[in-house]
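Co-fold these.
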Amino acid sequence: MANFKVSYQEDTALFQNLWVKSWLAIFVAAMIALPFLMSRYQLSILNEMGIAVIGALGLNLLTGYTGQISLGHGAFVAIGAYTTGLLTGALGLPFVIALPLSGLMAALLGMIVGIPSLRLKGLYLALGTLAFGFIVEYVLFHWDLTKGDMGMAVPKIGAGGFVIETERQYFFLIMSFAVLATLVAKNLARTKIGRCFVAIRDRDIAAEAMGISLAKYKIMAFAVSAFYAGIAGCLMAHYQKWIVPGNFDISLSIAYIAMIVLGGMGTILGSILGAILITGIPHGIVFLTDAFRETYPSLSGLIVDIKLGIFGIIIVLTLLFEPQGLFGIYRRIKVYWKTWPFKY
Amino acid sequence: MNQEASLQLEIADLSMSFGGIQAIRGVSFGVKKGEIYSIIGPNGAGKTTIFNCISGIYRAKTGSIRFESRELIGLKPDRIAQLGISRAFQNIALFKGMTVLDNLMSARVHLMKYGLIGAAVYLGRCLREEVQNRDEVEDVIEFLDLQPVRKSPVGSLSYGLQKRVELARALAMKPKLMLVDEPVSGMNLEEREDMARYIIDINEERDITVILIEHDMGLVMDLSDRVTVLNFGTKIAEGVPGEVSRNPGVVQAYLGEAG
Ligand SMILES: Nc1ncnc2c1ncn2[C@@H]1O[C@H](COP(=O)(O)OP(=O)(O)OP(=O)(O)O)[C@@H](O)[C@H]1O
Ligand SMILES: [Mg+2]
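Predicted complex below.
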């Protein structure tokens, strides 16, 4: 028995082979070195990416793993952001308490939004989550506490006299949470939770006939997904120092969908790749068009306007040509190298 | 009374209709613990509908289904499954995005008690239960000779193998009663013989009651302790295989279909 245990545990271990372990070593080294090598602007892009990774993991658990489409992910990010804004601002609570509460608040609303999913599927569910997004935006605009269009200042993150201020400090904070979020998502995916999610996505009737409660696990998927969004929103609020409802409109939800579609639905690595690229693309375009700024001053404004269109095109093209996203390409390359003649 | 007490599953006066179609009408039968009990009948006779009523996917209009003297009608499918009734579907209904191993592990959710937090950290009870269930699932994999495809995505397997995984998943649930819907349809002779062997082994070695729906008469006659014949949603005969195959009404139903 004892040796069974060891072998099955090893069989499901996260970091199995030298390949994965070497990547891990490179990653850790980069995470430590980058903040000292990069400019503030470059670091700010990485910070944005780190927050996006957390949000994208959440949406992928719901949409990629469980098959429940959501057009309201941005609204859960908003709930996390405004929760921490109010808790640390108006109530003066410390960040370490406001952070989990932001996640939990979003999760609670996620569970409520998840209830219709017990009856609605596909397009109808998408419309339901879309409506939720609009309701949240409306409330944030019109509620006295959230100060509507004027926006709300969010206090700095502080703990026991230490205040997080610089881009570099944010980098370490955000990356720690991004790594933690990734590990938790990976764990969920390899346990019964992840199997229930995928079973519901692949064949809900068979899942039920195997003893899986659809209600329990669908609601759980909504809650976990919203929790991730809430954490992302909380970090984003403190990092931006200032939040307005417009930060969290439908375009944020669409950006998140673009991340998981481009990266790869139902994969952890895909969430990360997608978050990095979709966050990076607008910066990349700005960089490329910088040269023309003199001659066409209105160009950078235009880019903001067409961002949504670009994401839309990315979604459509990925679904058409590589439905498994970048992860699908990654896996094909891996298989190719594995079966390369000289390896054996 | 005494005989009723020994019935593991008891169906009484069961009726089910879809819109205008009366799929089953007033069907009654009982299955004893440890039996292999077969339901046969022409296409559209209502066989699968009876399974769907038992597993709670359809809710029967009238009648009762009692499992270990507990009424099933009105219970949700996952509750019914947890009571010990598992199902191998006629049209393969595997989780196609998963490997064989994960498909089988998915059938053991009701046997794992750890929660969300445990899963998030993958420690303690979660790790213990995952390893222990993996251990038992490996037994099922060995039992049905699925070792070579353990880590293969189910979509990449041949039709015959997918049917076997369908059976394996139902077995992995650790059921008391297994509903097996046309396990050998579309299979070649060798695969049929293997499948027959597996069903007998499941019944005898694992002590699991089996209700079998099958069009392959040879298989039904070889395996079954008792057989029920359905035609147009009505039970037209019941008995041991020899009796049923000589029943004039049954011959008529099958010939009628052929002609
Ligand atoms: N969900 C449904 N909606 C409408 N009609 C249905 C439904 N399920 C079954 N039926 C009808 O009920 C009748 C019985 O179908 P059922 O699937 O139980 O037959 P069967 O005996 O399993 O046939 P086969 O041997 O072809 O599998 C058929 O006329 C079928 O069209
Ligand atoms: Mg059928």
